[in-house]
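Researcher: Please predict.
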Amino acid sequence: MEMFFYLVFGGLGALVPALELSKNNKDRITTSAAFTSFKNNYLVVYCLMMAGDWLQGPYVYYLYSTYGYGKGEIGQLFIAGFGSSMLFGTIVGSLADEQGRKRACVTYCITYILSCITKHSPQYKILMIGRVLGGIATSLLFSAFESWLVAEHNKRGFDQQWLSLTFSKAIFLGNGLIAIVAGLLGNLLVDTVALGPVAPFDAAACFLAIGMAIILSSWTENYGDSSESKDLLTQFKGAAVAIASDEKIALLGAIQSLFEGSMYTFVFLWTPALSPNDEEIPHGFIFATFMLASMLGSSLASRLMARPSSRVESYMQIVFVVSSVSLLLPIVTNFLVAPSNVKGGSISFSGCIQLLGFCTFEGCVGIFWPSIMKMRSQYIPEEARSTIMNFFRIPLNIFVCIVLYNVDAFPITVMFGMCSIFLFVASILQRRLLAIADKPKTQEWTAMKEHDTEAEPLNI
């Protein structure tokens, strides 16, 4: 492995603990013992859930290929997963507000475990069912757990600012450290112990089962708008009214879709960008480097959110601009550095430049997650939190499906340029959100709730 990869990994590996250890009282939030116990319980569960997700990611494509499926068939399986998340996942995720967030989290565990079991079958139909189940689980992972946390945090009367501490730690551990450990564990199971490409999915099912047991034994149930029984169509209508009537919610949804759409596109593009001529690059090592960069970002986010003078709406403008510039590097290097036509070999000079830019982007991802969670906790109404959060994922899933379907139709520089434009637009929308952040909430959502409550006896 080249010295360059060691230097980048080592540099980030030194920066992360240095940033954590250098925190002073201004960078820390003083909390209570009760909150610490609550936070630690959630973090354990969240890390187990993310371990179940991260263990599968690097081996899904590889497993399908070992079963003899080609790129086209595998692409259809991936599209089925994102399509399922958009259609079925939105419905199931939205039921969390009415049926209970704890039940939705348990449903995530069961659904994802069943998805893991389907990986033992080489039959295309069974694998397709597994992708559909996985898509439903993904929607629940990114809505039900956060909705339960915010509602339970408020129900127990904890300080609102303390939420940022839980969010930043969850991303630092679940999307950083756990991702690295899961990658190493998966590599151990598949390569070192030689248990085959299905072994990580079995390990994921075990972690999910442990997490489900903790949820069942220690979590209490909470709901969205429990004052009345609403059918799913009414919930969707209420969520649509909330988004349409409150510009802050609409802006937040657009910002999230633009950033996450660019992020998922980056996941598909970073490998061909770093090895356009089949250069030999250590994929697992680079992935671990990206996760270290993400941990660095989440650590920085925890510092920013701990300071009352630092507003999320303000610094996220800079984050989006930096992420936009970082994804322009493949285009810039393509013009400034003469491309090599030599097949194989080690990573090129332009590849090294791009890798540094990609690490910068991953750092922005690490800042983005806890920050967007903080803003969602402030602006999304509790009564329909899960429903609205799943609404936000509909344009995201549509976008990813389109990208997957046309991934070979456009040059890689065009794809990166599109992502860079999306991120710049996100910075403009973030500036608008900052401008209206202190405006009082509109009354349409409250008015609709009162109208529904008055009309309810007519349905008896």
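Model: The longest helix spans residues 162-192.
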